[in-house]
Write a structure and sequence with these properties.
By secondary structure, this protein is an alpha/beta fold. 56% of the residues lie in helices and 8% in strands. It contains 13 helices and 5 strands. The protein has helices at residues 5-12, 18-29, 31-34, 39-46, 50-59, 65-75, 97-118, 121-133, 144-156, 169-177, 195-206, 244-264, 266-281; strands at 137-141, 163-165, 184-188, 210-215, 228-231. Strands 2-1-3-4-5 form a 5-stranded parallel beta sheet, with helices on both faces.
């Protein structure tokens, strides 16, 4: 695709359907904010259906909604190193090292503060109930979220052997196809809207496997399948995919789950953590 997506929408505006024009009007008025919305949120905010959004994207020669978000991010004013210009913490090549560090610090603190505001004690408690009663806890994610799934597996491995981490999406599906209602999935998906994730969750639903979802978007497709949903803060642009600030909120949620889990099972987990610490000590000089 060539040219600014907003300009292309403007050129095609006269041939758009009524719902297409309604969506276009919303995008014109909220070009910067639209790139951070899930398809469900955009549908609700603009007053059109998700199917209308998909048709709108295809009429522009895009493969789907994620392509639209990416094009909107590209259309926004960017710095010379590709960062969104609207953010107060945007980093440019003109920044000194100290100002870069200060801006990164501010964005990380913002992520923690927003995640803390979204923290729901009841949902954390329900998640730990499921983890405590599970035979196995599968830690899943794709792309950058797979890294967070590995972090959860590594953290909980110091206290229990029931956590399992599987990277490959095909192996994830295969394992859940053989799972039982005594198993649990801890799924990380910032967007809450990927095909691989939905494939796993559909099978989990049929197998009555409980799902704990960590995501950013409250109205994403994944929330429809999850038994417990925990929200991480920080709006990440499509061009910032994999930012540390977005991961920091998820790491905070992992720690919350970990310590509440240990609080529920103090004696068993104390012994496990002592045993793993002694084993690791032997690896040190």
């Amino acid at each position: 695709m060539s040219g600014n997506i907003v300009e292309q929408i403007t050129e095609k505006y006269h041939v758009l359907t009524r719902s297409g024009k309604k969506l276009a009007d919303y995008i014109f008025a909220n070009t910067h904010d639209a790139q951070y919305l899930s398809i469900s949120s955009l549908a609700e905010n603009s007053g059109v259906s998700e199917a209308s959004i998909t048709r709108f994207c295809r009429s522009l020669g895009l493969s789907g909604y994620n392509d639209l978000k990416l094009e909107l991010a590209k259309a926004a004013y960017l710095t010379d190193i590709g960062e969104p210009l609207e953010s107060p913490d945007t980093i440019t090549s003109e920044d000194t090292m100290k100002s870069i560090f200060n801006k990164l610090h501010a964005s990380n603190i913002l992520s923690l503060n927003e995640t803390m505001e979204l923290l729901d004690e009841n949902q954390i408690s329900r998640a730990v109930d499921l983890i405590s009663a599970a035979d196995r806890v599968f830690c899943f994610g794709q792309g950058g979220s797979m890294v967070m799934a590995m972090e959860a597996w590594a953290r909980f491995s110091t206290a229990t052997s029931r956590f399992v981490h599987i990277e490959d999406s095909h192996m994830q599906v295969m394992n859940i196809a053989l799972a039982s209602e005594k198993d649990v999935i801890l799924f990380f998906s910032y967007s809450g809207s990927t095909k691989d994730m939905e494939d796993v969750m559909r099978i989990a639903k049929k197998r009555q496997v409980s799902v704990i979802l960590i995501t950013h978007f409250p109205k994403s497709r994944a929330t429809q399948f999850a038994d417990v949903v925990l929200f991480c803060g920080y709006n990440e642009s499509p061009l910032q995919s994999g930012s540390v600030a977005a991961k920091l909120g998820q790491l905070f949620l992992i720690e919350c789950l970990f310590y509440v889990f240990c609080k529920r099972n103090p004696e068993v987990n104390a012994k496990a953590r002592s045993a793993t610490a002694e084993a690791i000590t032997q690896k040190l000089f």
